[in-house]
Amino acid sequence: MQETGRIFLGSSRDPQDAIKKGEYLDLKLANRHGLVTGATGTGKTVTLQILAEGFSEAGVPVFCADIKGDLSGISMRGEGKDFLVERAEKIGLDPYYHDFYPVVFWDIFGEKGHPIRTTISEMGPLLLSRLMNLSDAQEGVLNIAFKIADEEGLLLLDLKDLQAMLAHLAENADDISKLYGNVAKASVGAIQRSLLVLEQQGAESFFGEPALKIADLMRTDRDGRGIVNMLAADKLMMNPRLYATFLLWLLSELFEELPEIGDPEKPKLVFFFDEAHLLFDDAPKILVDRVEQVVKLIRSKGVGVYFVTQNPLDVPDGVLAQLGNRVQHALRAYTPREQKAVKTAAETFRPNPEFDAYEAITQLGVGEALVSTLGEKGVPSMVERTLIRPPSARLGPLNDAERDAIIAKSPVAGQYDQAIDPESAYEMLVGRAEAELRQEEEQRRLETETEKASREGESTRRAEAAEGRRTRTGFQLPDFGLGDGGRDDTKEVEEVDEAAPRRGSAPRRRRSSGYQRQTLTETVMKQVGRTVASTVTRAILRGVLGGFKRGR
Hints:
Blueprint: E1 2-3, E2 6-13, E3 19-26, E4 34-37, H1 44-57, E5 62-66, H2 82-90, E6 103-107, E7 114-115, H3 120-132, H4 136-151, H5 159-171, H6 173-180, H7 185-200, E8 228-232, H8 240-257, E9 269-274, H9 277-280, H10 285-298, E10 303-309, H11 317-320, E11 325-328, H12 336-347, H13 357-363, E12 368-372, E13 384-388, H14 400-408, H15 425-470, H16 491-496, H17 520-545
Parallel strand pairs: 4-10, 4-11, 5-8, 5-9, 6-7, 6-8, 9-10
Antiparallel strand pairs: 1-2, 2-3, 2-13, 11-12, 12-13
Helix pairs in contact: 3-4, 3-8, 4-7, 5-7, 5-15, 8-10, 12-13
């Protein structure tokens, strides 16, 4: 039930158990955030549902996680069950009408809603380190990977992109370490193993394209009612760290993308963070500081954040102090820690002299809560013991057929259902490696061809030299220093093949073919030489051939 400018939460009671007054949440102050706490089975889910109904009626889009499936009934018209009608009469809710609200179902795994994705780059190294529970050294290496990817224009969209980037880091670790600090291959290997675990847990479907557009979470229907964006989280809760990291990423995206608008008449979006303790369990200080900063600043962007958890101690003090609107269901106080939690919860309320908040928290029934909201000038109202109103929509889950029908009629049907794989770091790095491989193969081919040509040239030269030796007569007359007096049958061959001299012999000294002026002495000496040579030659030939006449 929603009145002008405010949401009806229920009716408070006086000490005599009589209805006192209605309790409302002022829409102008709804972006000051809130807290819904209480033990299991005390009515937190119903409170979350009536808040979502009220914001939707006011035209405010909502994002919430459906942990057990119970919230999905908000998309179906409610029924006049006896206990609901009785509660409506008891708190003076007249008329008590039934209605249904526009819902878009989302699911990281794409099974019970439209797939919801983000990219590795959008998630960032801080949240990824939290998701994979990395050490400080490993987180440092992951930051270096993001830095290099940014410098080299490598898009990190999905897990295989990050795997390829880490492999690139390991391969060039020595060079990268000189610029960015030590990149230990052991750290790279640890991150790669963590990515493998994520992939086996189904996170592979969460990273990729098309990534979620924040504008698709801020829709209204044709009647002006805010769309309730519901994340199916029953399977996601099997990996609590992924669940918490995803919601924190979404909150950070809202903070980064939405413009500053101050304090609007009503929020632009209300974000319910169910099982909020998962966000802070074992979280490093830097992450807690990040959450505190986002919660502090995001209200000026028109976003109200409502944490839903069992115990107020689950939320750090710095965050708790910023949650102005509070609904506290019953808590058990049997152990010292539980008693401390009850005391902490009671101390966060503005006291009411009519009752003791500490005792009331342990005595509250199902569907009953202590309520304090921000009033005029942002001052918290005195805490009131309140009966929460019954929901207008169905109280309980949808069946599969009903869910499928709503998904089919969704305003974002077909936009996110099919994953796409554009060119990114993986393809670019693989392309580089293939190009280098082709270049190496081409270089080896050229070297092989050059070596082959060299061997063939050497074989040809040796064959020609052998042919030259084969055609020689093998007989040569001595020159006796007479110039042309001796004759070499292989002279012409040797002049052609000067590059291949006879093995084991000294190179010949070629005779000068130029004309030289001879002196008288040189002429006489040459003539005498010819006469002697002629006589000797004839003597040799007689001995060899026996062909001359005697007495000649």
